[in-house]
Design goal:
Number of helices: 19
Strand content: 5-15%
Strand order of the largest sheet: 2-3-4-1-5
Order of helices and strands: HHEHEHHHHHHHEHHEHHEHHHHH
Shape: globular
Radius of gyration: 26 Å
Structural class: alpha/beta
Length: 438
């Protein structure tokens, strides 16, 4: 490979992809296609940096590369100076619920708060310390004050930042917590710092406990967690970051909720957030929500069962599969073309060879032959996904590496079958069957 990658990254890539999991690192070595979709989201990110906000749904079938795209954007955003939070929805984590499911989503998001220097989550203490250090450095550059006078200047600046948050919903309480963290930092009070972090993470069970520990008569709840994310976004910009990106995947878990009223409550919360962002009531924050076509479009249980959402998100009359409006709130992922999949398996072949230190033996014809077999499977034209092809390919190169005396055709079988529709060669269909559909 021209662009030699570290063996540690190669190992993570091959192992994660073989297991059907999106790796957290190294995606730039295997990214193919999705150019238009990525450009549309990167434009959103530029707008967020300028103080705007965005709300997008990334929609694709299982294994179509939805999570891969979200992870690629996540990596890009942290590299560019954004803070990011991410969570997968589940029966325990929703947008709204009567048993703390909304709060559980918030807790997961804040636990996974990541930055460039802390890419695997848990970045909240680092962000707060960086913010305080930044203010101290700024004061030192402007003033020669020392000791108590210096601390007063720092404190004045910290309260000025806190004051700018107070105009936001729940901003006063957030500002009090920020100031409490500064005092704990100044006095090297580890217990108080821990309590403030616990409060930010939404881990206080009652207002009484928060009042006793922090003199803050407020805690994050199912109703207020979204407002807190908005405050975090503004605070992060004050702390030197470009903004906050919120990644929420597995929207299908809302679709799966059996109780229709609970589902509607979740869709109502999504609508509230969506309206808020588009009406300019949020700044420096972007939401990217991943889901399958069914969980969006199903008229009985999907998001489109909630008329207010359907009317806002449904496509107009002019968009087609070939001509998408990539400024629309829903970005639908088309399947990778066969040419793009070829480039992908070629990259994987070279990464595997580098990982196990051998010269790749699979030729251009071997790669075409493998893809021909994959696309020849019954139903492949509509159902085969990049995830399946990748897993099959890594299994194939593993077997070839472990059995060097065998060839691709030995393993995949003889080339005596006829090409099915969707294969890699041109085919003609008998005129009698042109209009035939299954």
């Amino acid at each position: 490979m021209e662009n030699k990658l570290p063996l540690r990254i190669a190992n993570i890539l091959i192992n994660a992809l073989k297991g059907g999991v999106v790796p957290r690192v190294g995606l730039e070595y295997i990214t193919v296609g999705r150019t238009q979709e990525i450009e549309a989201i990167l434009h959103d990110i530029e707008m967020i940096e300028d103080g705007s906000a965005s709300f997008r749904f990334i929609v694709g079938k299982y294994g179509s590369g939805k999570s891969f795209l979200l992870q690629t954007i996540r990596n890009y955003a942290t590299a560019k100076g954004f803070a990011v939070v991410d969570a997968d929805l589940s029966p325990e984590r929703r947008f709204a619920g009567t048993k703390g499911q909304g709060l559980a989503t918030y807790k997961e998001l804040i636990q996974n708060l990541s930055t460039k220097s802390k890419p695997d989550g848990g970045a909240l203490p680092l962000i707060l310390e960086k913010w305080i250090s930044g203010i101290q450095a700024s004061i030192r550059a402007q003033s020669e004050a020392e000791g108590e006078a210096f601390n007063r200047l720092v404190e004045k600046q910290i309260y000025a930042v806190a004051g700018s948050l107070e105009g936001m919903v729940n901003g006063f309480e957030f500002a009090k917590a920020v100031a409490a963290y500064w005092r704990a930092y100044q006095q090297d009070d580890a217990a108080m710092k821990s309590n403030v972090l616990k409060w930010f993470r939404g881990e206080y069970a009652s207002r009484k406990e928060a009042k006793a520990d922090l003199d803050i008569n407020f805690i994050v709840t199912d109703e207020t967690w979204y407002d807190f994310l908005k405050i975090f976004a503004v605070f992060l910009v004050n702390a030197g970051y470009k903004g906050l990106l919120v990644f929420i995947d597995e929207l299908v878990n809302i679709y799966k909720i059996p109780n229709s009223i609970t589902r509607q409550n979740n869709y109502e919360k999504i609508l509230t957030m969506y309206n808020d962002v588009l009406q300019g009531k949020a700044k420096h924050i972007g939401f990217l929500i991943g889901g399958t076509p069914q969980c969006i479009e199903d008229k009985y249980r999907g998001m489109f069962s909630y008329e207010a959402l359907r009317s806002r998100l449904a496509e107009g009359h002019f968009a087609t599969d070939e001509m998408k409006d990539l400024t629309a709130p829903i970005i639908r992922l088309q399947m990778l073309t066969q040419e793009e999949v070829y480039v992908l398996v070629e990259k994987l072949r070279d990464i595997h060879a580098q990982l196990y230190n051998y010269t790749p033996t699979m030729s251009h014809e071997d790669l075409l032959y493998f893809l021909t077999v994959e696309y020849n499977r019954v139903g492949a034209g509509t159902h085969i996904t990049p995830r399946e092809i990748i897993r099959d390919f890594i299994e194939l190169v593993n077997i070839l590496h472990q059995n060097p005396n065998r060839s691709v055709s030995d393993i995949l079988g003889s080339n005596s079958f006829e090409m099915a529709k969707g294969g890699l060669s041109d085919e003609t269909i008998h005129s009698d069957f042109l209009d035939f559909e299954v």
